[in-house]
Design a protein that fits this description.
The complex is a heterodimer of chains A (46) and B (328). Chain A has no helices and four strands. Chain A has strands at residues 2-3, 6-7, 23-28, 34-36. Chain A has a two-stranded antiparallel ribbon with strand order 1-2. Chain B has helices at 15-20, 22-27, 54-62, 104-114, 119-132, 148-160, 178-195, 206-212, 230-235, 240-245, 306-316, and strands at residues 4-12, 29-38, 43-47, 69-74, 77-78, 89-92, 166-170, 198-203, 215-220, 223-228, 252-261, 264-268, 275-277, 291-296, 301-305, 321-324. Chain B starts with a strand and ends with a strand. Classes of the chains: A mainly beta (46), B alpha/beta (328).
Chain lengths: 46, 328
């Protein structure tokens, strides 16, 4: 999936197909998200 | 067994060497202020992209490269000025470097003979080590008759036959095909479990490092980025480089600006209408307009067709964001 200029990759547990422009919903596991400072790349908060 | 300690180690190549080691020429120092310790019997993997300084580090430990600054200790002994032969180290490189005219037995015996060990001592050592690496049936053969996997088994057996305090493995599996790599990886793990020799493996293959090592050292441009247990590094990368380097497929790293929405803090993304709720644990450190890089692994992203699976997702989680196809 394209997010602005970036590609967002995801792994699905089953074979699924989506059409271009098709509305979908995303879920990120909150406890598995990481924040980094853009310049240094260092982690923000553990 | 032995404890290995590196304290503030630097390596800078002189001009002649720089022309050969191109990466070093770009960055001046091939290794910068490197400090870490391996405990007795520990298996440590040094992992990083080409030119990150991992092989240089191994060669400094082995005594094959001079140290520009810093100290290396094995146990309580500072080994900076010790000759390689006096460091009690076993080495196995990706190139097998076996002596073609000698049998496997003679290859294994070579260094012990050079140390004036008796025939009985040599035989006892080989009898112990040969089954560990499954080379007992190869002892009468000569290297040209061996497969790549067999040569590497002999190479590693030769490195441990003198029972070194420290075993250094430099990309030992890189010449082998997938199945053989996996097989020998298991053999190395089993061998280490048996002899409990402090072992360092240098590799660019994260699967190799993560499956073999108790802890891994991640290097980039001569700097240590992170050292920890594989799962710790995978789950809690200290920076975006480690986050993107460890894991296959790699972690998504998205540029984002945090904004204050009606329902709370949201990640927004340039040229995209995607909105993602900022997890609660970050609420104390974010601010309106703050630029961040958001990292999330592909396995931690779930996507569903709104029409078919919304109800299921909604019942499963409160963290739902709507997006639209390609432009998200």
């Amino acid at each position: 999936m394209r997010v602005g200029d970036s590609l967002l990759n995801m792994t699905t547990s089953e074979e699924v197909w989506y059409d271009r422009g098709q509305p979908v919903q995303l879920e990120f596991k909150a406890e598995k998200t990481h924040l980094f400072e853009p310049e240094s790349g260092n982690r923000i908060l553990k | 067994m032995a404890q290995l300690k590196l304290k503030g180690v630097y390596k800078r190549y002189d001009n002649a060497e720089r022309s050969f080691f191109r990466k070093a020429a770009q960055n001046d120092f091939a290794v910068k202020n490197l400090s870490f310790a391996c405990e007795d019997g520990e298996f440590v993997g040094i992992l990083g992209p080409s030119g990150c300084g991992k092989t240089t580090t191994l060669r400094m430990v082995a005594g094959l490269e001079e140290i520009t600054a810093g100290d290396i200790y094995i146990g309580e002994t500072r080994i900076n000025d010790l000759l390689p032969k006096d460091r009690n180290i076993g080495l196995a490189f990706e190139d097998y470097a076996l002596y073609p005219p000698l049998t496997v037995y003679e290859n294994l015996a070579f260094n012990m003979r050079a140390q004036k060990k008796s025939d009985a001592e040599v035989k006892k050592a080989i009898d112990y080590v040969a089954p560990l690496l499954k080379v007992e049936d190869l002892l009468g053969m000569k290297p040209p008759a061996l497969s790549g996997g067999q040569k590497q088994r002999v190479n590693i057996a030769r490195a441990i036959v003198r029972r070194p305090g420290l075993l250094l493995l430099d990309e030992p599996l890189s010449h082998l095909d997938g199945k053989m790599r996996q097989q020998l990886r298991h053999e190395i793990k089993r061998m280490h479990h048996e002899i409990k020799c402090t072992t360092i493996i240098v590799t660019h293959d994260q699967m190799e490092a993560m499956s073999l090592a108790d802890r891994i050292v991640i290097m980039k441009d001569g700097d240590l980025q992170q050292m920890g247990a594989p799962i710790e590094v995978y789950d809690n990368p200290v920076n975006a480089f480690v986050a993107g380097f460890i894991g296959e497929p790699p972690m998504n790293l998205l540029s984002s600006v945090i904004v204050r929405g009606d329902g709370g803090w949201l990640f927004t993304f340039p040229d995209s209408d995607l909105r993602v709720e900022v997890p609660q644990r970050y609420h104390d450190v974010v601010s309106d307009g703050m630029r961040v890089t958001l990292g999330v692994r592909p396995v931690d992203v779930m996507v569903a067709n709104i029409r078919q699976r919304a109800a299921r997702l909604l019942s499963r989680s409160t963290k739902i964001w709507e997006t639209r196809g390609e432009s998200a």
